[in-house]
Design a protein that fits this description.
Blueprint: H1 3-22, E1 43-50, E2 53-60, H2 67-75, H3 80-84, E3 124-129, E4 132-137, H4 147-165, E5 174-177, E6 183-186
Parallel strand pairs: 4-5
Antiparallel strand pairs: 1-2, 3-4, 5-6
Helix pairs in contact: 2-4
Length: 194
């Protein structure tokens, strides 16, 4: 091959690259095409009781992975629709405080609207330290009817929220302290999936 042919070949490569790159498609600016995408609605897993065993329920939430928010949602108890499906709670809730609604997600895909916390929401204290979670139910809440199931509801709900908050770390056991000082270590292996 002569030097002239090599030089012509070297000149043709950038020219061909330019032709192939353009492909006849005109450039455009930003195209306005409506509102923001409505992605997947964030949910949290709450644990209630059905037929004497734990049952997981997914609920829309404004705070995925926030353990305290998940536990407070649990304290609201099952909704009317969930109760009609046989879900109950073993947590001690003041009479007449069970809600008929849960956080709702607007049709336009915006953030979930969370109902205002009831006055008894301070009956629980949630502490997250690293991958360990502790939940303390105040003595003002009263003693649960079935302390084992009540503690499991709290532990599994807290564990599920912590797994969303830090998906790359295996959460430690959840410590639940019931009214009267009874402490229960919750194990995630005993929590049914949701």
């Amino acid at each position: 091959m002569t030097v002239g042919r090599r030089a012509r070949g070297a000149l043709l490569v950038p020219a061909m690259a330019g032709v192939l790159a353009s492909c006849g498609i005109p450039t455009t600016g930003v195209v306005q095409a409506g509102g923001p995408a409505a992605g997947v609605v964030p949910t949290t897993r709450l644990y209630f009781v059905r037929d004497g065993a734990l049952a997981a329920v997914r609920r829309p939430t404004a705070a995925p992975g926030d353990v305290e928010s998940a536990v407070r949602d649990l304290l609201l108890g099952p909704t009317g629709a969930e109760r009609s499906e046989g879900l109950t709670t073993r947590l001690p809730l003041p009479t007449g405080m069970l809600p008929s609604a849960v956080p709702t997600v607007p049709a336009n895909g915006g953030a979930a609207v969370v109902p205002e916390a009831p006055p008894w929401a301070d009956l629980v204290k949630v502490t997250v330290s690293g991958h360990r979670v502790s939940v303390r139910l105040s003595s003002a809440a009263g003693e649960p009817g079935d302390p084992g199931l009540a503690a499991a509801q709290l532990a599994c709900t807290a564990d599920a929220a912590q797994r969303i908050a830090d998906p790359d770390t295996e959460p430690g056991p959840v410590t639940v302290t019931l009214p009267g000082g009874r402490r229960v270590e919750g194990a995630a292996t005993r929590c049914p999936g949701g």
